[in-house]
Amino acid sequence: MKALEELREENGLSLSKLTTILNKRYTCDIKICQVWEWENDHTKVSNEEAQILADYFQVSKDKFIK
To answer: What is the mean pLDDT of the chain?
Structure first.
C-alpha cells in the first residue's frame, strides 16, 4: 500500500516508530512486520486497522482499503 508508506515517510517515521506510536495511542498490538506487509501489499489492513491509520494520519479510512 503505497499510501501508507508515503504518509509514514512524509512524517519522518520509521516502521518501528510508527508501530510504537500506534500501539501506545490506540492500545493495539500492531507489529513492525505487519506494517511492512501492508506497505508491500503482502496483506491487507482490517477495517479496524484502517480506522486507526486514518485517525492517526488524519485522512479518510478509504485511503487504506483497496
So the answer is: 96
